[in-house]
Amino acid sequence: MEEKKIVYTCFCTDVIHEGHLNILREAGKYGSVVVGVLDDPEMIRYNRFPTRTTAERVEMVRQIPEVSDVIVQKTIMYDDVVETLHPDFIVHGDNWDEPGLSVIRENIEHLLSEYGGQLIEIPYTYNASIQKIDRQMLEKLSMPEFRRSRLKKLLKLVPIVKTIEVHSGLTGLIAEKTIVVNGEAIDQFDAMWISSLCDSTDKGKPDIELVDMTSRFRTINDVMEVTTKPIIFDGDTGGMTEHFVYTVRSLERMGVSAVIIEDKTGLKKNSLFGTEVEQTQDSIENFCEKIRAGKRAQLSEDFMVIARIESLILERGMEDALHRAFSYRDAGADGIMIHSRKKDPAEILEFCDRFRKEDRTTPIVVVPTSFNSITEQELAAHGVNIVIYANQLMRAAVPAMKHAAEEILRHHRAQEIDEKIMPFKEIITLIDEL
Ligand code: SPV
Ligand code: MG
Predict the structure, then answer these.
(1) Taking the model in full, what pTM does it have?
(2) Measured between alpha carbons, how far is residue 300 from residues 223, 330, 356, 393 in Å?
(3) pLDDT digits over 16-30, tens only?
(4) Is there a single domain that holds both residue 177 and residue 94?
(5) Exposure winner among 147, 158, 351, 375, fewest CB in 10 A?
(6) Does residue 207 carry a catalytic annotation?
(7) What is the pLDDT of residues 388-406, one digit of tens each?
(8) Which residue's CA lies nearest to atom 10 of ligand 1?
(9) Which domain holds residue 407?
(10) Which residue has a Cα nearest atom 5 of ligand 1?
(11) Is 234's C-beta closer than 6 angstroms to any atom of ligand 1?
């Protein structure tokens, strides 16, 4: 008897809906159906953050009668699957125009062509009921409980959490939706940073803890209304300990995942000024008490208080930075941010290596604004867990806006600048309609 042909399809979904069942029914006509469940880390890079774990999704697919076997697909590209399974057919929806899908199609076609396998494209179903399920998934991702816990999950799943600064709904949408295809890899940001510098600058104010918490919370709310990714909040010095505890409660309730507070006191100025301006570092005792109070105040398990060390910025030396790091950790800090304004990443790497020698688990956060030649991969190799691109969106926007304003003044009309600026039709593609 002729052996049954193998038909393979990969699912990157948390819910099985009629579109998937349709794919499986069609696939079943060609042979015995093996479904790949895309592994969590790859789901995160390529698609939406999974609301169910890989194991749960495997179980979900196993329950479907049309499915004869389930495997975990480790990478978005099909090389490993094809090598081990050698399917006669690969079935895929015909929604190839979605971001990133065209490279996957090329990958599948190339692999199949090597041994005469066949790609079967099935019309992609996206009706009202599927649309509703899709929206419910997005809604779940944006809810405070789920969003808040996502940072800790990410820390377990990805080599380094890539975080980009946002200061408005629009920049939030850019962080949420920007996807690039880099060779065979698809990439996107994991989390968002509400920077005190950019939040203040957007309001035309200096970064000296002048913009009050109510206003900062409004920025968080603007971002949260249109996004799902987790938020790390720049809490400046945290203010007075008696105030910080209330900030922790509010952030937690809103669904923020972490607050980073820096060990400075008095009139805080931005760290990128370093010793050019007068800045005072807090005592270890005071700052530890602030961390302890914040940790006592939080109610959920997943909220993180991360302690930021300014010793290198204020040129107090490596030993002081390390001593503070261990003290803050012992006071209960869930992570350590180490900052530097040197172009050379050497002092950051030395800190990370020495910290990691004694502590293999406490997350390390860095902000490579000055030491920007270092890659995420190199940082991760030195034990860094979260990288924050703290101000690049703002710095990209300002010169572009300034140039447009100058051009209009120069030419007494807007025609000359028109081809350099994005048509609004394109901008509004970022905005979701309900
Ligand atoms: C911010 O983005 O506001 C920061 C990081 O605190 S830095 O500007 O580098 O101090
Ligand atoms: Mg700041």
Answers:
(1) 0.94
(2) 22, 20, 27, 32
(3) 999 999 999 999 999
(4) no
(5) 375
(6) yes
(7) 999 999 999 999 999 999 9
(8) 271
(9) 396-430
(10) 390
(11) yes
